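Office hours follow-up: a student asked to see two folded examples consecutively, so here they are.
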Amino acid sequence: MAMIELRQLSKAYGAVTALSNLDLSVPEGCLYGLLGPNGAGKTTTLRILATLLAPDGGSVQVDGVDALKHPREVRRLLGYVAQEVAIDKILSGRELLQLQGDLYHLNRADRDHRIDDLIDRLGMEPWIDRRCGTYSGGMRRRLDLAAGLLHRPRLLVLDEPTVGLDIESRSAIWQLLNQLVEAGTSVLLSSHYLEEIEALADRMAIIDAGAVIAEGTPTDLKQRLGGDRVTLRVREFSDAKEAALVRSVLEPVEGVRQVVINRAQGFSLNLVIEGESVIERLRHSLEGAGLPVFALAQSRPSLDDVYLQATGRTLMDAELAIAGQRDIKQEKRQSMR
């Protein structure tokens, strides 16, 4: 049975489309990862799922419950940990968790037992009775996660839970997430960290421009690519014109496919090869065109390669493009003042 069913989900903010007929099915009892750059629609999807935002169209079901018709029932089923941590700076961490338990109408004995268990599992004992205003980012994130788990939700929804965290805090959160899934809790986690999704996710979806463009297990998605991934450059830093020329030379080579220009890495070329003698053939073709290989690396496919195949750009390229759009919008707003 699916824990989450999203069908034809759409959402726009004025002229900006955040979600475009997004379909997503998350099985019960697994850790499901949403991978995509900032601005891909991950946070909008999770906020709609958590009943904090109304979609423009589509349907949302959580454990068989229509979230658009019965939002209060869905809120009892899930715990939501937002990307931005908002906690009271005056209360101690323990006091904040006690308040959270009271809001969920937990009886005092069960509330306090649950708080003690989460303090232990997340390594919060040394600082939990200090005021929250003194906490580091990692401490605040662990406390926020504990608050989302206090009522023992069947589904835990996490939006970029480890952004900017220290290694100790990230390790503590990863360990707890694995324990939760082993105990039967369903977890939906959004991230733009490739290593996080690869390390934790049983299944995953790649989101780009508000739509799911690839779905499956991390292993299956990489195996679908076939062959080996090669990154090469004909000089340390090329430009767009030279990269396009290199691509035109590589594409006809037998055993070469999916040649993509990687702007984020100095206009290097990413491609998939199949066959033992392909490297020799592509070197020969480039040398014949007066473009000797400056550097070449060969590896098995990664999740970044999966994203590259699906979108024609790397996650880093996508992040840079979105950042560039934001800079342009900010400059326009400033010029209008």
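And the second, which I mentioned at the end of office hours:
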Amino acid sequence: MHVFEPLNRVLFLVLNGTPATPHWLVFAGIFIANDLIWLAPAMLVYLWLTGNGLRRELAVRACCVGFLALGINQLIGMAWYHPRPFVIGLGHAFLAHAPDSSFPSDHVTLLSSLAFTFLLGGERRLGLLALIADLAVAWARVFVGVHFPFDMIGAALVACLAYGLVRPCWNMAGLAATGMLIALYRKLLALPIRRRWLRP
């Protein structure tokens, strides 16, 4: 990684905002970096509430991939600390953040996990939406000064790894796990389902 660090820093300075950046762009960058991540749970809830068994199975699989990927990120962070740009005084930070390890980005890891799972699972429109959000957040997290560009590449690779690890396990137990969750959902929300406020 140290071999690529000069390139990582150069790319960061190219993408990072400056005090001369228009205020509207800084505001947009902060919003995307901070708040667009809420699209992830919204997409999962939408897929569950509007879908049949197959779409619900895909939502559960995407959750598993996302949680595993975030767990891998935690292990990477414990094994190897990579300082964030503002910690080493590089560029400009427009967003307050803890000085924990920057590599890889949790935000982009989660969105990449959903994008890959949706696209490979046949949900192309939702997968494309997740991918667009993923790319936007990747740009914004660098723009506001809390991540390096290579943190985003690492996040995508971790998401790919998590998907590859989940897939064989999912082929063995995924449908059964989804069936149990659907049964629990129907039991806990029996009243709104009976009144047709929710799909069974």
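Two things to take away from it. Helices lie at 5-15, 23-35, 39-50, 53-79, 106-120, 124-143, 149-188, 190-194. The two ends are 50 Å apart (CA to CA).
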